[in-house]
User: Fold Hydrolase, alpha/beta fold family protein from Lysobacter enzymogenes.
Amino acid sequence: MARNPRLFQSLAAIAGVAAAGYVSICGWMYFKQRDLMYFPQNTRLGADMTDYTVERGDAVLRGWRLNAGREKALIYFGGNAERIENMREILAQWFPDRTIYLLSYRGFGASDGAPAEPELFADALAIFDQVAREHPRQPVSVIGRSLGSGVASFVAGKRPVERLALVTPFDSLGDTAQAHYRWLPTRWLVRDRYDSIANLRGYFGPILVVRASNDDVIPPPNTTRLVHSLQTRPQGVEVVQLRGADHHNIGTYPEYGQALREFID
Assistant:
């Protein structure tokens, strides 16, 4: 069969355009990824609406302290678009015997700065350390939801967390993003990785995982991989699955609060 040079040239040109387009998309995803990962826009509020701060030198983290004066403490890390102030009333009711701390991430709520994994991790350790100083020789437990599960897992691997509850958690953000964008090399593009499996290797306390059966944000296999990695620990992991719940409405299920209360207390 005779070759058609023009056909081959056309196909090569099309392949070149497609390759350039693919590389451009990868580049756009790499440089814009934090805009796709963090959504602080709808969480912003005035500093006068908060009552607790952690000074970080380059930023002030602002939030709330509930049930002040209790001996034991509880820290809550929220999701990547969560208005954590909406959890104040319910957490205060669930844990009346603990002082509860909710601090907005950088760029969220009334906190200064812009979110990124290194800064959020360092901030989270500073929050834990300040809370621990305010509750000397008393246990500090941590709850992390969605993105906050990655932050909480890092803290637990670095600090003496009494009990750790992870709500709608993932194995790592790189693997979770890959599940959503299968046609892109997302696993290698992600800079803020939140590798909970690796971070939890340094934690040996009790862990609760609360997962939603219909989670539409964290693919179930990503939560399952995290759970399987924790089952190899001598302490194991307690898992509560809320049937019918999705990523956003899990907090409306009575079993959600019941599981957290029974585990933390």
Summary: The CA atoms of residues 165 and 260 lie 7 Å apart. The longest strand covers residues 60-66. The longest helix spans residues 5-37.
